[in-house]
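User:
Note these tokens:
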Amino acid sequence: MITSSSGSILEVADQIGQSLASLPDWEERFGAIMETGKQLAPYPEEHRRDDLLIKGCQSRVWLRAQMVDGRIHFDADSDALIVKGLVALVIRIMQDRTPQEILDAPKDIPERLGLAQHLSQNRSSGLSSMLKQIRLYAVALSLRTSS
């Protein structure tokens, strides 16, 4: 079980990284990541649109963002279990943050999670694409609310 509590983006990323590191091997870590993906809220069928697909992911990953009370709320899904788990981890870290918090977040989230050296090149690129899309949503939503 991957645990995290509230805190800054860095604190939550580090908590998740420590939780993963406490598991004895990568088989169990990947199992925990997939279990985290299963905890995502059901993703509405009407949001399985091409404009919500993350480009750069080998698997299909849908990510939707909306501003709720000045904070960005994300919904996501994937057609691959491990990737669904990865997007669930990213959402745990970035969920309900202000656009500025997301834009100020460090770019080394995969390293903080301890995943960088254990993911295939395709999954690593996909994780980077997820984080890039979250930053793009933060820019777009901050511009929309400031105008």
